[in-house]
Amino acid sequence: MPVEQRSHDTNNGSLPYLFSPVSDNAKQPAPLVIFLHGGRDRGTDLNVLLKWGLPRFVDLSDSLPYVFAAPQIPAEQTWADRADDVLTLLDELIVSQPVDPARVILAGFSLGSAGIWHIAALHPDRFAGLVAVSGRVPKTLAESELAALKNIPVQIFQGGQDKNLPIEDTEIFVERLRNVGGKVDLTVLPEGDHFIADEVYGNPKLQQWLISQNRREISVVA
Predict the structure, then answer these.
(1) CA separation, residue 216 to residues 2, 10, 20, 26, 127 (Å)
(2) What's the gap between Cα 6 and its chain centre?
(3) What is the strand order of the sheet 184-189 is part of?
(4) Which of 218, 201, 204, 219 is nearest to 68 (CA)?
(5) Extended strands (E) in the chain
(6) Is the four-CA dihedral 1, 206, 102, 125 of positive or negative sign?
(7) For labeling, which of 1, 6, 136, 139 is most exposed (least CB within 10 Å)?
């Protein structure tokens, strides 16, 4: 389903974003997937996001069982700079779309993965799942913030040949998260480099996972 180009007004200026509604035959509130792009896709042209990864997958799909949004930040900014704006966009979509607030997934690639750790650690009650692809974990993430993530199911994907991110660093983080009770799956693509987003986000198993997470179930388990 071709995506729309929209803009969200914030106190920090406009936040342009790609948007795709849930399929027309959806009868119940749907999951929401918010995607945070990597560093090289920053700027003012939303078409850049459509060249690959999850935005490209959504744009080329006939219909999907979730609402999708992918904001874009300017070249000089990081996702930590616009964390509050991502949350207000989330709130706007919950009000304006048939979105189930208990089924919000935050996904990211590279710089965007660093963003999802930052945002989710500060607001763990807002998300039913996290997907981090080729992403470094912020070194500023304290143990208390890490522990806040323990009830959120996490999927981490990394290429075995990623020159930008040592696999050892990712494995250490996964162990830390599991030690505080985190539910995390690490998938390593042995021949993959840093740019594995097309292969990861187009995987049917991950697409099914995106719509299977529910924060209500997390609360019951906790």
Answers:
(1) 31, 29, 25, 20, 10
(2) 18
(3) 4-10, 13-20, 67-71, 30-36, 99-109, 129-133, 154-159, 184-189
(4) 201
(5) 4-10, 13-20, 30-36, 67-71, 99-109, 129-133, 154-159, 184-189
(6) negative
(7) 139
**Cβ-count burial of 24 within 10 angstroms (0-12 exposed, 13-18 middle, 19+ buried)?**
exposed
Task: Evaluate the CA torsion angle 35, 38, 41, 43 in order and state its sign.
Answer: positive
Q: In whole angstroms, how large is the CA radius of gyration of the chain?
A: 16
pLDDT in tens, 167-201: 998 998 899 899 999 999 999 999 999 999 999 99
* DSSP 3-state of 39: helix
pLDDT of residue 201: 96
Three-point CA angle 21, 69, 41, nearest 5°: 140
Q: Which domains does the chain have, with CATH numbers?
A: 4-221 (3.40.50.1820)
Token reading at 63: 């219909």
pTM: 0.95
